[in-house]
Amino acid sequence: MIKNFSFHFIFLVTICFLLLLGYWQTQRLEWKMNIINSVENNYTLKLDKFPFEGGIDKEFEFMQVELKGSFIKEKLMYFFKSNLSGMSGFEIVLPLKTENKKYVYVILGWIPYDFKESFNLDFIDSNKELIVNGALIYSKERKPLIPENEYSASIWYLLNTDEMDNFHKIESSPYILKIIDQNKFENLLIEFEPSNITNNHLQYAVTWFLLSIVILIMYIYYIRQGITKNEV
Question: What is the pLDDT of residue 91?
Fold first, then answer.
């Protein structure tokens, strides 16, 4: 009897767990759709000036803006990140000193993982002011599972302006500028489109729900087989 109880319990708990996973993915789907809609709406807007103070609740994130200033090449950072094709590599990030003496971190573009050792910034003149256009990205919050930055190798894992400021001894805007002009730097892969934000939560939800249905059918089949044997 105990064996039968354990069997039924495991089956029912598994079904409930899979249903909860499916429901959770539908919630994530709604959350991701809201993000995509927000990105697409903001991406069509262009600001007249850079929001150095940050604004309220990331209100300017993904909006486009123009900046003029000079890059500080000696503060080069490599941020570990896969590109939109899934290849491992690094985003190249430099602080930009604007014409009004303020600092903004700029994502120049992406390089493959193997290119790091041979990469250089010869294509940038620190003594020359440049005009850069891009989309705004708000500083990311550190979460428990994010690795610590490898400062000695200049490898970073989190776009957090406070951490970058503490390391470089500067004070920057909480907004980071991501260059979106694919022809700006020939040495770098520049990719950013709102439509490229992945949203696989519907597939995940369908998968969990289908698994729960399959297990439920197996469970019902097992019970019916047991009833049939008892009747015989």
Answer: 95
d(CA 217, CA 219): 5
| pTM of the entire predicted model | 0.72
DSSP class of 10: H
| Residue 66 CB contacts under 8 Å (≥ 6 apart), including other chains | 131, 132, 133
pLDDT at position 2, please?
46
Burial code of 161-175, b = ≥16 C-beta within 10 A, e = fewer?
A: bebbbeebebebbbb
Q: How confident is the model at residue 17 (pLDDT cuts 50, 70, 90)?
A: very high
* Integer angstrom CA distances of residue 34 from 29, 47, 55: 9, 22, 20
Query: Terminus-to-terminus CA distance in the chain, angstroms?
Result: 20
pLDDT tens digits for range 111-145? 999 999 999 998 888 888 989 999 999 999 998 88
Distance CA 110, CA 81 (A): 8
Q: Nearest to residue 168, comparing CAs of 99, 73, 101, 84? A: 73
Element (H, E) at 182: none
Distance CA 89, CA 176 (A): 19
Joined tokens for residue 22? 């499916």
Q: Rounded to whole angstroms, how far apart are CA atoms 94 and 20?
A: 43
- Please report where in the chains the tokens 């909006």 appear, as a residue: 63
Q: What single-letter amino acid sits at 22?
A: G
